[in-house]
Write a structure and sequence with these properties.
The chain is of the alpha/beta class and 328 residues long. 47% of the residues lie in helices and 16% in strands.
């Protein structure tokens, strides 16, 4: 065997080994980030609990604790039904349906975020229930009782939200609906608006949405994982496309909102380091329907409702009054 053949075999061997290593690492990250019903998902310490340091942080934490406690008490004392819809792929998706105390055609459909659950969105449900709404708290695919194999950062979930909207209109042809989501749930809300939503949907509230999944993971890589290059993300993108069947670059609120016709209120925390508030402007500029925005100072990710609870709901009520007064 000649020298060049030996060198070629060594090089091919190195490439093969590198490919196997990259594949193993990429699959590990895909499982940990997109597949909730796995051990890898639960092993990721996504959010480390921090102890409030300043008096203001303690005040916000106390408001969060008390609000969530009241929300849970509301859930425990309310009449609730299990609702089910089918996804386009045939997954059974679950939601909790809390009936209004008095007969009502008003519905609030609330969607939780990445690594979240219905406990996260219960405070929104509580407020809408106090306004006389029927409330539906959905469990995203792969979460809780909902079936599914993987999350797609809103790409497939937007069709799930559309299924929930159609479920409501099938139950009540006179339904008047508000759609409210936080974090990835907010992105789901925004992307849903680019689809053929029923006329019964009167307005939408987006709390802390990312503009595109690609930009979101770039931000996380740079500011949370301290990566100096996006090379790993480009490789990861290829594996996500091959294994999960969607592209991070296509998961875009901006593109979807150009087709929107539903009024949208954008809310964001000024101290949000997980999804930076700078993402709000490109989202706002892409919306073709009636719109408004508000950034709450001091509020961290999805904490505007706890940092400024009175102003939070005042802004929502004002927006509803201007764009969908029939909901009040």
């Amino acid at each position: 065997m000649e020298l060049w053949q030996i060198i070629l075999i060594v090089v091919l061997g190195i490439v093969l080994i590198a490919g196997i290593v990259i594949t193993i690492i990429a699959n590990k990250f895909i499982t940990a980030f997109f597949m909730p019903k796995t051990k890898a998902w639960n092993a990721v310490p996504w959010k480390k609990k921090s102890t409030p340091k300043t008096d203001r942080e303690k005040e916000i934490q106390e408001c969060k604790d008390s609000t969530r406690k009241k929300a849970q008490e509301w859930r425990d004392s309310s009449t609730v039904q299990d609702l089910w819809v089918n996804s386009r792929e045939g997954y059974r998706l679950h939601g909790f349906f809390y009936l209004a105390k008095k007969e009502s055609h008003k519905y609030a459909l609330c969607i939780h975020g990445y690594r979240g659950n219905t406990a996260n969105i219960a405070p929104y449900g509580l407020h809408y229930a106090e306004m006389g709404f029927n409330v539906i708290l959905t469990e995203n695919r792969c979460i809780g009782q909902s079936e599914g194999k993987f999350l797609s950062m809103g790409w497939n979930e937007k069709y799930d939200a559309l299924a929930w909207l159609n479920c409501i209109t099938e139950m009540d042809k006179d339904a008047q609906i508000i759609l409210h989501g936080e974090s990835m749930g907010a992105a789901i809300v925004l992307m849903t608006l680019g689809e053929a939503v029923p006329e019964n949907l009167k307005c939408a509230i987006s709390d802390s949405a990312f503009d595109t999944a690609w930009n979101q993971f770039k931000h996380l890589g740079k500011h949370k994982m301290h990566k100096k290059t996006n090379m790993g993300l480009y490789i990861w993108k290829i594996f996500i496309r091959l294994r999960l069947g969607f592209s991070l670059k296509k998961v875009s609120c901006i593109k979807q909102l150009k087709k929107a016709r539903t009024p949208v209120l954008l809310i964001h925390g000024g101290a949000d380091t997980l999804v930076p508030p700078t993402m709000l402007k490109p989202i706002y500029n892409s919306i073709s329907s009636p719109k408004d925005w508000f950034i709450f100072p001091e509020a961290k990710h999805c904490h505007s409702i706890f940092a400024h609870p009175q102003t939070y709901w005042e802004k929502i009520h004002e927006f509803i009054y201007r764009t969908a007064p029939e909901l009040l």
